Amino acid sequence: MTFTPILVGTGLAGYAYLRRTQDDQIARLAASAQPARDIAQFRDRIAQVQDVDDLMNDRALLRVALGAFGLDDDIANTAFIRRVLEGDPGDPEALVNRLADKRYLAFARSFNFAGTPRLPGADATAALRDELAGVPSVEALLADSALLGRALDAFDLGADRDRTVFLSRVLRSDPDDPGSLVNRLGDARYLGLARAFQDKAPGLSADFVARAGEEAAARLGALATSDDLLADRTLLRSALRVYGLEDRIGDAYFLKRVLDSDPDDPASFANALSDPRYGELARAFGFDRRAAAQTSVYGFAAAIRDRLDTLRTSDALLDDPDLLRRALDLFGLEGADRAFLKSVLDSDLADPASVANRQEDPRYRALAGAFDFGAMLGGTPQDEAQRRITRLIDAVEGRRTQPADPAQLFADPTLMVATMTFFDVTLGDSGVRYARAALDSLDPESPFAGTLDPDPRYRAFHAAMDFRPAPEGRAYPPGFAEAVTQAYLERQFELRVGEIDNTLRVALSFERDLGDVAARFGSESGRWFAVLSSQPLRLFFETSFGLPQNFGTVDVDRQVTILREWAERAYGTSAIGDLLADPARIEDMRRTFLAASQTLQRAQVQPFGNTSALTLFGAG
User: DSSP class of residue 550?
Assistant: First the structure.
């Protein structure tokens, strides 16, 4: 069975009919012979696509993948498509970033064989957040010139590249505090940069946000634990609805086990269930990952960095519930009352009879040694007494990514010494050998698992390092196959409409194409340059504004200026994000385009005659 779209009329009337019948017609297209086969094969086999060769060697999958981005004509251009896919879309020098047609960039970013795949249409900062997720500190970002450049360019802040002191303050500034630097600047670009960097901490996945909607996702993203979610039935229902799991809303015990599961552990409760939606739910929230981050050396270093100067006495720590909890969690300690903790923290570690030294559990001595309030009581300056903490902060912030396993930790002498000293375990050659053997023995995936029974300091040390080996194989985000095949169907429908009436095709794809531009580029200039590189969008605006056929011969910077000036005149704004935010204005823009197209078809002349828009704006 083949498919031919049904069109009734042209222009405004033809478009109105298409919109009314679009869903039914796409359903008919999906049931036709080749699209039905291709979609079924893509959904069945995409998980097995682990590298560029796998995709290039499967013509049915490649046809769907290219078709989802309007690149059907490149199906035979295998050498070129291979170069597009093999490049790193995060590298400004890669071929895909030098192509004028940004559909190739969207294609490469979604499959991203150089990194992590993501849903088609995910916004520009989604990929940036993926990269920032491995950056442990502001200092590490500022030291990575390539990543810093991409982050600044995403928010049209490339001119600030050398302002490292200022950028350091921006990146540390609290976006939620109206009095913070980033809010006082009054520039949305800096606010966006700060949010993108600070949102690198585990939280809601970008894919979940895309499926749940921004309003619900914003409230859900503020939840810290699975208990917070389970306590709010309205939000819980919103989360479950994304995965069609509303019928389990009454089973709090079951859902807690799902939500607290490690999504990267195939044996975790959620992943062991036969229904893959539970694993996707656990991954979307990442509560397990968030909890681990809170009790890791990385979370502790970030939390204490700006508060360390205030910790001159044990009472200052005891009066800070959040920081005290983090410190105790880091050493795996709990259940102690204030008086006991104060006596531990104030202990003179040089005195064998001090409270910390008399404890059977050596972690109390390690805790006391980290803060060393006892030394400060004896007159030792704070910066000297708390050198263990400052060394830990410096070592953690000096890394680009955190170690995935003990081998990577012990390959970094600075981090190794800082963490071993912090947890008060023995240094020296024999101490390092034992520590490595102890950490290996505590790793359930290690061939040496269970070979030693180290004291509690090593257990706390191992837990605080939060070793997480990268999962084997390539993982596609939840809903990836569905999103790609839906985009493929929509593009195929538009393609078939365009074979009959290209004006209707451009009108159908306009909002999506403009949304893609807004999602991929952070600056308005970048967005308008992308409009010019998109044949449908160029046609849309040139037709709507009545620009002459030789408009494309004008200098490209001047073209952008003219389009933005005409947009200001016609729509009241040239900000593409503002245009997309107003559905009524989008419909008005579409009606203007369709009416202008009909006028041009009837007149077969340029509407400006000899007085073109270029002359009006002094171009040429």
Answer: G
Domains of the chain by residue range: 11-111, 122-205, 212-293, 296-465, 502-600
CATH architecture entry for 11-111: Orthogonal Bundle (1.10)
Asked, colleague to colleague, whether 11-111 and 212-293 share their fold, the answer is yes
Query: Is this structure's pTM higher than 0.85?
Result: no
Eight-state DSSP code of residue 583: H
> Two tokens at 336?
């102690």
The CA-based dihedral angle spanning residues 589, 594, 600, 601, taken in that order and rounded to the nearest 10 degrees = 170
Give the chain's count of helices (H) and strands (E): 42, 0
For 395, the enclosing helix (H) or strand (E) is helix 387-397
Amino acid at 147: L
Band of residue 244 on the pLDDT scale cut at 50, 70, 90: confident
Q: Which residues have C-beta within 8 Å of that of residue 98, sequence separation ≥ 6?
A: none
How long is the chain? 620
Contacts of 263 (CB under 8 A, 6+ apart): 270, 271, 279, 282, 283, 286, 288, 289
Cα 318 vs. chain centroid, distance in angstroms? 36
Alpha carbons 263 and 248: distance in angstroms, whole number: 19
The number of angstroms, rounded, from the C-alpha of 337 to the middle of its chain's C-alpha atoms is 41
Q: What is the pLDDT of residue 239?
A: 84
Residue that is written with structure tokens 């095949």 in the block:
485
Please tell me the predicted confidence (pLDDT) of residue 558.
Answer: 92
CA distance 614 to 84: 36
Cα–Cα distance between 447 and 598 in angstroms, integer? Answer: 73
Does an H or E element contain 274, and which? none
- 427-455 pLDDT, tens digit each: 888 889 999 999 989 887 777 778 888 88
Q: How far apart are CA 213 and CA 315, in angstroms?
A: 45
Task: Give the up-direction half-sphere exposure of residue 411: CA atoms within 13 A in the CB hemisphere.
Answer: 8
pLDDT score recorded for residue 264: 67
What dotted CATH number matches 212-293?
1.10.3700.10
Q: What angle do CA 532, 538, 540 make, to 5 degrees?
A: 150
